[in-house]
């Protein structure tokens, strides 16, 4: 049995080294091949990856000639993978115990499960529940992402129904079924990916894993095994001065997901709500600007979203 670990790296060389070192500390490297796709990094990633290939004989690398989508980068690794199992994993995953063998055994024991993940925890040890979400809906957008979100309560019951799986309790150590699992740690089989189709490179950023989960769930279940955990260094808010553009990419990817999987009427209604929401936010921020209270970050991200929507 061989497990192929696919890792897309972009400007995270130092974190990647910690990830690979931790994997080799806890996992049986004789049954694992690691394929690192460096997606046109401009930091020290190439040097780090080359050293990893020397230090660990089961590591190989692919270097892209330009910045490509996360899906396309993963697909380039999946296509050359030799393993029966495919683990799509972020470079900011840190192993603190053996997990891969236990997960593959679970997939073999339960063929009705198409993909599985361990519990993702932050450096604070807390479960990152926001990575195990419900599939997107119009109500999810209104309740949690629109300008009206503040009008609705954020009760666990409402969140469980529309936003994220509140039923997962990592203290139980049980196996929980869930609608989707993130590509931060997504273990499936190569046979499933080949039969279903690889990742959709129409998603430039965000919703790649939502789409992957949605397609797998047409025939199989997805699960989280909570008696094993990995540390996920991601998960912090992306509201910083230079990444306001992520909001626009997120919403455009959501619309693409609607167009691919839902009806034309639902997609049209979402787009209409998005336009109304962003124009309203821009209007409010321009009014606040007169009083010197405008939120430049909020203004930038909604203007950028409208620009993407028109292209």
Could you tell me how far the N terminus lies from the C terminus, measured between alpha carbons in angstroms? 46 Å
Rg from alpha-carbon coordinates: 20 Å
List unreliable stretches of 5+ residues.
235-239
Our estimate of the beta-strand percent is 15-25%
Strand line-up of the largest beta sheet: 3-2-1-4-8
The percent range for helix content is: 40-55%
Mean pLDDT, rounded to whole units?
Answer: 95
Biggest sheet record: 5 strands, mixed
- Discrete helix count: 11
- The helix-strand sequence is EHEHEHEEHEHHEEHHEHHH
Q: What would you call the shape?
A: globular
Keywords:
9 strands, 5-stranded mixed sheet, 43% helix, alpha/beta, 311 residues
Descriptive notes:
This protein has 311 residues and is α/β, with parallel strands linked by helices. It is 43% helix and 18% strand. The chain has eleven helices and nine strands. The strands form two sheets. Strands 3-2-1-4-8 form a five-stranded mixed beta sheet, with helices on both faces. Strands 5, 6, 7 and 9 form a four-stranded mixed beta sheet that branches. It is globular and about 65 Å long. Residues 235-239 have low confidence and may be disordered.
